[in-house]
């Protein structure tokens, strides 16, 4: 008998003791509910076991050597997940045992973690112009869907308007998350300017609209100069305005609250998170510090209070009873906690960069995007979409006047060690052969 008999063991005598404890004679009885004809009876054709750590490392490295990543290639991939430089201190802190845990911890035993998350909330609140910021959830699309569900509960209305170009993946998440209780309507946008049609928005607004949702920058990279008008139109009809942002743009763009946003959401990937085979993604929601917003916020929020006698501050859960964690099956929304580590790393990134650093990064991104736009517009057969409309980080290009498809262009670029832009021709057939760079 081992010192720890409660640990599962493959020894026959241990197996028999465990089976007797649950009233069975054999392991096969555990699988009685599985029909015989679908049980696998043959031997698995597996290679010999690798018993040496050195041999295992060599084997894994050989497998990984077949992959090509954005560190090896010049990358123009984006669409919500892009390769930004991650300072070494972000990786160092992400690997520290005080933070790198399987769960969020408890404020009584993890005060440092809760202080770090409070600092992240405070800095992101300064960028968005909001006083309440959630710890991260799974991704930006999930946070946006929760934001729209919040708006429906706050207003008691059951229709939301989506403005402008939105990725097919995000639209699919909205439909999954909001159906069947909330109806989704799309407001068209102008293909020539890339901007949202105010006329069509006005036509679709009504007393059943809970929220007007738009992205700034948009999925195609456009910065809509009408943002203030859009939020004003939503407010005039009694709807809330939900704005999705790329937080790294807020070093140079106005805080969403300044142009009237009621709820701000987005993804933290650009703030110190690696791509990691598709993310490093972490969504957030930011709102004013008003009861109607906080009461419908499903996330665990962290607040701080001074300790007695001026002995510093304590950080813990705030209004815990309203969260999906407490309400469980009775909740009308669900907001996960698995991405909290990314909130700490985003906080490290924002603290490291500071206001001037974030402004410098934003200016650099804008200048490089504008420079690339000019270079590509000079290529025969390639058209830059809406060249007069300002963009941030990304922009759309079209190959309709060339003799090749986006897939063919990207195949040729890979040979040159370049990852081309995301193919948009499936998401937006009206744009023809187009890509997001």
Explain what this protein looks like in three dimensions.
There is one protein chain. By secondary structure, the chain is an alpha/beta fold. The protein has a domain of about 260 residues: Type I PLP-dependent aspartate aminotransferase-like (Major domain) (Aspartate Aminotransferase, domain 2). Helix content is about 35%, strand content about 15%. The chain contains twelve helices and 15 strands. The strands form four sheets. Strands 2-8-7-6-5-3-4 form a seven-stranded mixed beta sheet, sandwiched between helices. Strand 9 and strand 10 form a beta hairpin. The longest helix is centred in the C-terminal third of the chain and has 38 residues. The mean pLDDT is about 90.
Helix and strand layout, with pairings?
Elements: H1 12-21, H2 53-64, E1 74-75, H3 88-94, H4 111-128, E2 132-133, H5 140-155, E3 159-163, H6 168-178, E4 183-187, H7 198-204, E5 209-215, H8 227-236, E6 240-245, E7 263-267, E8 283-287, H9 291-295, E9 301-306, E10 313-318, H10 324-327, H11 340-377, E11 383-384, E12 396-398, H12 406-415, E13 418-419, E14 422-423, E15 434-436
Parallel strand pairs: 1-13, 3-4, 3-5, 5-6, 6-7
Antiparallel strand pairs: 2-8, 7-8, 9-10, 11-12, 12-15, 14-15
GO molecular function: glycine dehydrogenase (decarboxylating) activity
Keywords: Oxidoreductase
InterPro entries: GcvPA, GDC-P_N, PyrdxlP-dep_Trfase, PyrdxlP-dep_Trfase_major, PyrdxlP-dep_Trfase_small
């Amino acid at each position: 008998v081992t010192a720890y008999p409660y640990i599962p063991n493959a020894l026959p005598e241990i197996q028999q003791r465990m089976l007797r404890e649950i009233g069975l004679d054999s392991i096969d009885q555990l699988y009685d509910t599985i029909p015989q004809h679908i049980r696998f009876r043959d031997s698995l054709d597996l290679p010999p076991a690798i018993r040496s750590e050195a041999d295992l490392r060599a084997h894994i490295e050989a497998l990984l050597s077949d992959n090509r990543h954005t560190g090896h290639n010049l990358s123009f991939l984006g669409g919500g997940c892009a390769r930004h430089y991650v300072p070494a201190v972000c990786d160092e802190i992400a690997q520290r045992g005080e933070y790198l845990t399987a769960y969020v911890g408890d404020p009584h035993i993890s005060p440092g973690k809760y202080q770090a998350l409070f600092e992240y909330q405070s800095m992101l609140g300064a960028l968005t112009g909001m006083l309440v910021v959630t710890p991260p959830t799974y991704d930006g699309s999930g946070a946006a869907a929760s934001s729209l569900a919040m708006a429906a509960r706050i207003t008691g209305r059951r229709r939301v308007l989506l403005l402008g170009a939105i990725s097919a993946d995000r639209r699919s998440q909205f439909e999954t998350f909001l159906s069947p209780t909330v109806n989704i309507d799309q407001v068209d946008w102008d293909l020539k300017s890339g901007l949202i049609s105010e006329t069509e928005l006005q036509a679709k607004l009504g007393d059943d609209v809970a929220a007007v949702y738009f992205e700034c920058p948009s999925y195609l990279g456009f910065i809509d100069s009408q943002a203030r008008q859009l939020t004003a139109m939503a407010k005039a009809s009694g709807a809330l305005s939900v704005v999705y942002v790329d937080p790294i743009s807020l070093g140079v763009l106005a805080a969403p609250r300044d142009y009237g946003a009621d709820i701000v959401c987005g993804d933290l990937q650009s703030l110190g998170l690696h791509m990691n085979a598709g993310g490093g993604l972490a969504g957030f929601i930011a709102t004013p510090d008003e009861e109607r917003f906080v009461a419908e916020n499903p996330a665990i929020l962290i607040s701080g209070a001074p300790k007695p006698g001026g002995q510093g501050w304590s950080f813990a859960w705030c209004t815990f009873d309203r969260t999906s964690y407490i309400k469980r099956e009775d909740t009308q929304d669900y907001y996960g906690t698995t991405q909290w580590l990314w909130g700490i790393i985003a906080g490290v990134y924002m603290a490291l960069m500071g206001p001037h650093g974030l402004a410098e990064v934003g200016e650099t991104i804008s200048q490089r995007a504008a420079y690339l736009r000019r270079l590509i517009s000079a290529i025969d057969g390639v058209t830059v979409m809406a060249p007069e409309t300002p963009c941030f980080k990304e922009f759309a290009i079209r190959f309709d006047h060339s003799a090749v498809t986006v897939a063919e262009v990207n195949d040729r670029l890979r040979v040159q060690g370049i990852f081309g832009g995301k193919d948009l021709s499936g998401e937006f057939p009206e744009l023809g052969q187009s890509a997001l760079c």
